[in-house]
Each structure stands twice: as structure tokens, then as C-alpha cells.
Write a structure and sequence with these properties.
about 25% strand; two-stranded antiparallel ribbon; single chain; 2 helices; about 55 residues
Length: about 55
Amino acid sequence: MPAVVDEDKCDGCGECVDECPTGAIELNDVAHVDPDICDDCGLCVDVCPNEAIRLE
């Protein structure tokens, strides 16, 4: 399952963007994950300081 961002928790820090090995995350005020590119690795989940990303 691809990563999903809780926009209410995301503060736009960009740590997930830097960590994503596939480039599936873009930052436009908050993070957005392209589910077609996300490989479900969970690195973004681990690095998010706000616990705003989860795998579904």
C-alpha cells in the first residue's frame, strides 16, 4: 500500500521528500505522495517528525 499523508499533521518540513528513494513525494505547502511511484518502503514514515505519514 502506498504512503498517505495526513495534511492536518504535515508542516511541510520536506524531510520525507529528501528521504524518498523513488521521488514519489512532492511538497506544495504539505507533502503529497504519488501512489503510482511509491514503492511502500516506509522510509518517509520513519523520518516524519510529525507522524503525518502512514502506509495504507
